[in-house]
Amino acid sequence: MTQGKRWTPVMAILALLFAGLLLSGCATTGEVEDLQQQVQEANQKADKAMKQVEDVDESRMKAEKSAEKAVNAADRAERAANRSERYADDAQKSAQKAERHSQKTEKIFQRMMSK
After folding, report:
1. φ, ψ at 26 (rounded to 5°)
2. Looking only at Cα atoms, what is the longest distance across the chain?
3. DSSP 69
4. Cα–Cα–Cα angle for 46, 51, 55, nearest 5°?
5. Which of 17-31, 47-61, 64-78 has the lowest mean pLDDT?
6. How far apart are CA 80 and CA 46, in angstroms?
7. How far is CA 18 from the centre of its chain?
8. Model's pTM, two decimal places?
9. Is residue 7 classed as helix, strand or coil in its secondary structure?
10. Can you tell me the distance from the alpha carbon of 10 to that of 5, in angstroms, rounded to the nearest whole number?
């Protein structure tokens, strides 16, 4: 055998091994589609999470507005209660004054009736 023919099968085997190594790292179409589907699912989950975050943020803003309204209502109620107490005190004083006047009037009437 000549020297060139002896190396031909070895070179052919090495070429096949090298080609096999190069092709073994490539993804198949099915693997690429699976990866695309996983990416799409991940994007959908991320979109859903963002929507939930937006909903929570909106709910937080509504809660803050409601809390502010509640504080304002509590302040108004406290002011009304204070006014009510003042009116009640004034009414009590007026009632006492009316009672004293009534007693004076009764005494005057009794004096006039006794004469």
Report:
1. -80, 145
2. 169
3. H
4. 145
5. 17-31
6. 51
7. 59
8. 0.48
9. helix
10. 10
